[in-house]
Amino acid sequence: MELDFIRKAQLKQKGNFYEDFQSGQVFEHHWGKTLNEGDNSHFSSLNLEANPLYFNHCYANAHDHPSVVINPMLVFNTVFGLSVEDLSEAGGLFLGVDELIFHRTVYPRDTLTARSEVISKRESGKNPSLGIVSWHTRGFNQCDDLVIDFKRTNLVSKKERSD
Amino acid sequence: MNIDALTGNDNYFEDFTVGEVMKHARGKTVSEIENVQVTNMVMNTAQAHFNEHSMLGTRFQKRIVFGGCTAALVIGLTSQDTSENALMELGLDKIRFKSPVFHGDTLYAYTEVLKLSESDRDDAGEVLFRHWGVNQNQVVVFEGERRTLIKRRNYTVSGDSITQ
């Protein structure tokens, strides 16, 4: 049968559910990413960023940087993005971020990796098929220097959905 | 290159007053470029942001914009008035996504100056801002605080690099 492969295929499920998280559990997230000048310039322009440190090399030099600076919101988004499969891909709204600190300037060709620890988990009062989980995520450069850390909270789906 | 002429003259540390509230001039309609492209660029694998078909059975019925994109856009919309003369972003806090954002929504940004502080250098100071992102129906979709290190008027650019 022409579509036999669809019948035979097993879904390669990604992500973790509420039941998979335990307080204190640590995730070393996959992939890492080298940031480049093109993505940085593009990201900054799309968001109407006005600080020339992120897109004017001469201006950045005049402010004691060896090159343009990676937009801190791109650093945040990249470290966050690397954490998604482990933490939040299985579903549930992103509620907020607290205590985010930019510890160190990031430059083009720096490579970021991410690690997270589960801070807390609790049931949702409004929806029994969901829980609320908070994580402490840290981002590092290629020298293992801490460049960013923040606490993030999401709704997270349970495996056994009651809805 | 006249470095000082590249940025505005009304957004140095001394120009901010605690309690002032700004409405930023430009809004932006969120499209697939701001959401799908950036979500994929930053390796965010949650397909609620980029698989329209997967969303048909949900209460949203369509893709929702990644909060990180919303945050970056709202802060970007504020930046000419808040951080054009910033030396460094220090941190964010109390970031809340109050309502989902969809492709086609238009976001506007508002800012209140919460606090002005000395920094460890005499040519820059710290400003604590509160930002809001609001959609075309005046629904708040984003709010949060941001700490930024901003040049004082006595800041001087390093001389050797001006000749580059």
What does this structure look like?
The complex is a heterodimer of chains A (163) and B (164). Chain A has a domain at 16-36 and 72-157: Hotdog Thioesterase (Thiol Ester Dehydrase, Chain A), CATH 3.10.129. Chain A is 23% helix and 31% strand. Chain A has 4 helices and 6 strands. In chain A, strands 1, 2, 3, 4, 5 and 6 form a 6-stranded antiparallel sheet that branches. The mean pLDDT of chain A is 95. Chain B contains 3 helices and 6 strands. Chain B is elongated, with a radius of gyration of 18 Å. Mean pLDDT of chain B is 95; it is low at 160-164. At the A-B interface, helix 2, helix 3, helix 4 and strand 3 of A face helix 1, helix 2 and strand 3 of B. Strand 3 (94-102) of chain A pairs antiparallel with strand 3 of chain B.
The H-level CATH homologous superfamily of the domain at 16-36 and 72-157 in chain A, spelled out, is Hotdog Thioesterase
Number of helices of chain A: 4
Distance between the termini of chain B: 8 Å
Number of strands of chain A: 6
Largest sheet of chain B: 6 strands, antiparallel
What's the overall geometry of chain A? globular
- Beta-strand content bin of chain B: 25-35%
In terms of DSSP E residues, the strand content of chain A is 25-35%
- The helix content of chain B is 10-25%
Please name the CATH topology of chain B: Thiol Ester Dehydrase, Chain A
**Percentage of helical residues of chain A?**
10-25%
Mean pLDDT of chain A: 95
CATH C-level category of chain B: Alpha Beta
| Low-pLDDT runs of chain B | 160-164
The name of the CATH topology of the domain at 16-36 and 72-157 in chain A is Thiol Ester Dehydrase, Chain A
Q: Count the DSSP helices of chain B.
A: 3
Element order of chain B: H for helix, E for strand? EEHHEEEEH
